[in-house]
């Protein structure tokens, strides 16, 4: 077996079949401390914290992914292929692009457009469309309805650049009805597809690219709970 890895000190059986992946490892710690019972920390390598515990009797893991497709590409690949994880649910923040996307909205990425060259490794004779697992997506929407949490489903952008030299880039994506921009989902969806596993990206809108609106740190913590609770319920 290829475990432990250079990035994850967990042993076989330490990680649940479903992993929630926020970008920030401290958010993983927050979820473990506030939602899980009987928690065990399985990883501290590079401070990319990972925990396994119980949520309403179900075994669930939560682990940070870091920022960008290169980072989540490594961690999700290892979880799928080395630790026998079946489902990864990314729970992160995003910047709104579409006019109808507001602060605090919960966006579920049905598809993840990207400006990344991540798919080049597969040597495909065309353009691959990274998409979510429909079963997880449907459960997330239904769970949001049960909890009274509004969700918006559509196409998101996974960008390799946070500071883009092309200042018109987001406007061009907006013309294609892309809802928001983040930095990880496309790589996660591709890794899942290649491994024959399942993935979903649930996002909270923390700021808006065109209006300049942004949530405070306190607002982010309170709003992000909605996203966390949807993910935990479907785990």
Automatic annotation (TrEMBL):
InterPro entries: DeoD-type (IPR004402), Nucleoside_phosphorylase_CS (IPR018016), Nucleoside_phosphorylase_d (IPR000845), Nucleoside_phosphorylase_sf (IPR035994). Residues 18-229 form the Nucleoside phosphorylase domain. It is an enzyme of class 2 (transferase). PROSITE patterns: PNP_UDP_1 (PS01232). GO terms for molecular function: purine-nucleoside phosphorylase activity; uridine phosphorylase activity. It comes from the Bacteria. Belongs to the PNP/UDP phosphorylase family. This is Purine nucleoside phosphorylase DeoD-type. It comes from Herbinix luporum. The lineage of its organism: Bacteria, Bacillati, Bacillota, Clostridia, Lachnospirales. The gene is deoD.
